[in-house]
Amino acid sequence: MLSVVIPTLNAGATLAATLSSLPAGLAGEVIVSDGGSTDDTVTLAERHGARVVLGDKGRGQQLARGAAVAKGDWLLFLHADTWLGHGAAEIARTFMAEPGNAWRAAAFRFKLDEDDWRARLLEAGVAVRTRRLKLPYGDQGLLISRALYDAVGGFKPMPLMEDVDLVRRLKGRLCVLPADAITSAARYRRDGYGRRVAHNLSCLALYGLGIAPARFQKWYEK
Question: What domains can you pick out in the chain, each with its CATH number?
Answer without folding.
Answer: 2-191 (3.90.550.10)
